[in-house]
C-alpha cells in the first residue's frame, strides 16, 4: 500500500509501572482521542507488560514484541509522570531496548504531575534522551498538572479543556509523523 494511503501507527507508551499511578487516566484520554483520528492506528503499551531483563543493558535485553511494535511505528506518544523532577527509571530501561527502530520518527510527550507544573520537568529531562535515541520531538506537549483535579478516581475527565489540548498535540504529532515517514521512505540519508 502506498505510504499516503497506509494508516499512521502511533502507539502510546504508559511510562510507569507503579501501583495507583495517576498517569493511567491521561494515557486513556490520549488513546481515545488518537483512536478518533482518521488514518491513524494506535494501541496502548503499558511498560508493566514488557518483558525486561534487569541484568543487562541496551539492545542486549530487547523484548521482541516491543521492538517489532516500535519498528512498525511512525511515531510514539509517551505519557510519563514526573517523579522527583525526573522520569521513571523503568521507562528509560524500556526505551534503551531499542535504537535503530526509533531513528527519524516523531515523538510527543505528555507530562503528568500531582503538582501545578504538570510534568514540565519530566518533559524537559526526556528531551535529550529522545534526541540521543534518534527521535524527533514535537514542540507541542500536553502537561497534565494537578492531575487529581483533571480526572476523578474512576478516570472521568473533569476538565474538558484537555480534549482541545490533546487534539492540538495530536495535530502536530500526526503532521510530523507523516512528514518523517515520507522522508524515511523517499529521501536517502
Description of the molecule:
This protein has 189 residues and is of the alpha/beta class. The protein has a single domain, classed as Rossmann fold, CATH 3.40.50. It contains 5 helices and 8 strands, in the order E-E-H-E-E-H-E-H-E-H-E-E-H. It has helices at 24-35, 64-72, 89-95, 120-133, 161-186, and strands at 8-9, 12-14, 40-41, 44-46, 75-81, 105-112, 135-137, 142-144. Strands 2, 4, 5, 6, 7 and 8 form a 6-stranded parallel β-sheet that branches. It has a two-stranded parallel sheet with strand order 1-3. Helix 3 (89-95) links the parallel strand 5 and strand 6. The radius of gyration is 16 Å and the shape is globular. The two termini are 23 Å apart.
Q: Could you name the key traits of this structure?
A:
two-stranded parallel sheet; alpha/beta; Rossmann fold; 189 residues; 6-stranded parallel beta sheet; globular; 8 strands
Largest sheet: 6 strands, parallel
Helix content: 25-40%
Poorly predicted parts? none
The CATH topology name reads: Rossmann fold
The CATH architecture can be given as: 3-Layer(aba) Sandwich
Output the number of helix runs.
Answer: 5
What fraction strand? 15-25%
What structural class should be given to the helix and strand makeup? alpha/beta
**Global mean pLDDT:** 94
In CATH, the homologous superfamily goes by the name Flavodoxin domain
Name the overall outline.
Answer: globular
The domain count comes to 1
Q: Which oligomerization state do the chains in this entry correspond to? A: single chain
Separation, N- and C-terminal Cα atoms: 23 Å
Strand segment count? 8
What is the CA-atom radius of gyration, in angstroms?
Answer: 16 Å
CATH class membership: Alpha Beta
Amino acid at each position: 500500500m502506498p505510504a499516503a494511503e497506509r494508516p499512521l501507527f502511533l502507539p502510546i507508551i504508559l511510562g510507569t509501572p507503579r501501583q495507583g499511578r495517576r498517569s493511567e487516566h491521561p494515557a486513556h484520554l490520549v488513546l481515545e482521542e488518537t483512536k478518533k483520528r482518521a488514518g491513524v492506528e494506535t494501541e496502548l503499551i503499558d511498560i508493566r507488560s514488557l518483558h525486561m531483563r534487569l541484568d543487562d543493558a541496551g539492545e542486549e535485553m530487547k523484548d521482541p514484541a516491543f521492538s517489532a511494535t516500535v519498528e512498525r511505528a511512525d511515531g510514539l506518544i509517551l505519557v510519563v509522570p514526573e517523579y522527583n523532577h525526573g522520569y521513571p527509571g523503568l521507562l528509560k530501561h524500556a526505551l534503551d531496548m531499542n535504537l535503530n527502530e526509533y531513528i527519524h520518527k516523531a515523538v510527543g510527550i505528555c507530562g503528568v504531575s500531582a503538582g501545578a507544573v504538570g510534568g514540565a520537568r519530566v518533559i524537559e529531562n526526556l528531551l535529550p534522551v529522545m534526541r540521543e535515541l534518534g527521535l524527533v520531538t514535537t514542540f507541542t506537549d500536553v502537561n497534565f498538572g494537578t492531575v487529581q483535579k483533571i480526572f476523578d478516581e474512576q478516570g472521568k475527565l473533569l476538565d474538558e479543556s484537555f480534549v482541545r489540548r490533546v487534539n492540538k498535540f495530536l495535530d502536530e504529532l500526526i503532521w510530523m509523523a507523516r512528514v518523517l515517514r515520507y522522508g524515511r521512505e523517499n529521501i536517502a540519508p
